[in-house]
Structures are given as structure tokens and as C-alpha cells.
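Sequence only, no structure available. Ideas?
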Amino acid sequence: MLKIINVVGARPNFMKIAPLMDEMKKHARIRPILLHTGQHYDDKMSDVFFEELRISKPDIYLGVGSGSHAEQTAKVMMEFERVALQERPDLIVVVGDVNSTLACSLVAAKLLIPVAHVEAGLRSFDRTMPEEINRLVTDSLSDYLFTTCEEANKNLQQEGISEEKIFFVGNVMIDTLMKNIERIKSRDTLEKLGLAGRAGLADRAGPAARDFAVLTLHRPGNVDVKETFRDILGALDELQTKIKIVFPIHPRTTKQLKEFKLWEMAKGMKNLMLIDPLGYIDFLSLVSQAKLVMTDSGGLQEETTVLGIPCLTLRENTERPITVSEGTNVVVGMNKDRIIQEGLKILNGAGKMGQRPKLWDGKAATRIMNILIEQLGLVHRLGYSVVS
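Reply:
I predicted one. C-alpha cells follow.
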């Protein structure tokens, strides 16, 4: 038996690990173990995702909770080291760029356990972002680096990582999206939110019928600086006079709005609809029927590209430039005037169309497992053959 520990720590990890767990379960001689560090954990942000993505409950839950970057990383390392020493896995799989990704990679590397990093090579080239540090260190420690685009391969090669470790496989987040697309299309999210008269799915009414936008906002660079947050709200105040904006609001974002005394400003916008965070299916049902998405999230830039929805990224950079060069994404920063300008352009029908990037076809997890089976010697050791 080959024992593989698959690590998740926060909500963005769940969509990436789900197709990998599905692929591993197809092989009788592979024992996949799902480990949740508990870096982020509450019912709305975790449990519903396990249920909707049909992921079995974690085999191991560390329950590390919140804290500073140093505290959280240290807690994960301490708890994960105990698990790794007890389980003695043949491989650790980490996804994305959260603190748990870095912490478990570091522990595994010191214990000489091979590490596979899924979504390797993404770079914003902005080291003020904690995620960028996590990406750089994790990639430097990993034995197998699975990339979503050819540009990520080039980033890794320029950092001196051997080409033999780098594998361009596509995007596992898109595997999850494509697997659930019919559920997403049939979900009655708009009816539940009172938006049913505002949009039709692309195959019914088309983009021209959509008259609401979706907003997500949670990154410290946006919500922890009062002046920046106020500028973004100023842009939203202008745009909400032209289109209804649905804002599933992160608990931490709500906290900052109240702390900066901006809550009343937000509540006073009659066309800004503040709602609780949504589960995966409901959220993507909402996004797939929007005229415009504004976000500071990384994964949503990818999902809007595949769904063909114009996206404005409220950051100065992106670690996913392929969503700009090939997709529907425009990076607008946090400047009030630029957000308004690009938002109005989309509302006037001049949004980017884009195309689906190479290998974003729903088969990334299959490619990853085929490579691991071959690279780990399972073809000969366990008599495996790769799955087409």
C-alpha cells in the first residue's frame, strides 16, 4: 500500500483536493489520508464545502485555529510533525499557498518525506503578500511540482528548479468546476436571493440579460487599510447606481468595516446587497449568472475565465497572469477612478471575452495521478498501469 497524506487548511484548498482524492480512491493499493489543519474552520467556511463537494470528513483534524502567521505556521508544524512520525506516509500532497501548505512542506522535507505541490510556480512577484513567501518556499522544498500553466514552469526554471521535477498538468480547481457544472446551473440561488428576475443562465437569456454584479473582498491589503478600503467603497458607491452588487461578505471583512466606522457607508448603498458567505455550488451559481465580478481572490480569477464572466481584480498584481493574457480578467488595483472606469466599460458591453487556457479541461487530477504512479515506481512495484 502507498500511503499519501493530502493536506487542506483553508476553504480554497477544498476545491483543489477534492478531484485528487477522487482519483486516489480509484486505486486499491493507494491509501489516501485527508488531513485538515483547521487553519480556517467554521460551519459556513468549511463544513458546507465538504458536504457539497462530497469529500469525506477528514481522517485527521489538527484544530490549530487562528493566530499570527508565525503562530499559525508553528502550530501546524508541531502538530503535523507528530502525525507524520506516526503515519510515516510515502508522500505528502499540498495544494495552493496558505500557511498550512508551507508548514507541512517544511516538516515533510526535514523528515525526508517526498512532497508534491499542486498549483506550483504561480508568482505575483510581490513579497509583501504572505502567500508569495509560502509559494516560494514550498516550491523550493517540493519533489514534484504540478503547474497550471506554462508560465509557471518558466518561473520555476528561472528559480533553478530542475525541469525533471516540473509537470504541466492543468488546473484541479477547474476539474471541480466542470464536475459540478450541471449542479451549478440548476441551483436556484437567484430565487433564494430574490434575484430571479435579474438574470438567466448563459444558455437561456445570455449575458445581456444579467443585471447584477458579484463582489468578494477579504485580503489584508484591501480591508486592513482604512484609506484603501474607503476608496474601494467609493468606487462601489458609484457602480451600484448602475447595477446591483451582491456581496457575500467574509466575517473578517465585516469586522474591519465596523472597526473603521465604514459599516454605515456600506449599509447605506441601496444597491449593495450584503449577504452571508455562500457554499461552493450557490456561490458559483451566482457568479455564473453575473454580468461582472469584482474580487481580490486568486481562484475566482480562474473560475470566471472558464465561465466567461468579465472579472476585475482589485489588486495591484496577480499570481495568475494567464487569466489576464488569455482569460476575462483585468487587474485594476485599488484606485477608485480605475475601478469605476473599467466597471463602466463592462456594463456598457465592452468586457473581455477571453478563452479557456490550455489543459483547463477537467482532467488535471488524472494527469497528476498518472505521473505520481510512474514517478513513484508503482508501475513496477505494485503492477500498476496509468489511467487514461
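The two ends are 22 Å apart (CA to CA).
Hope that gets you unstuck.
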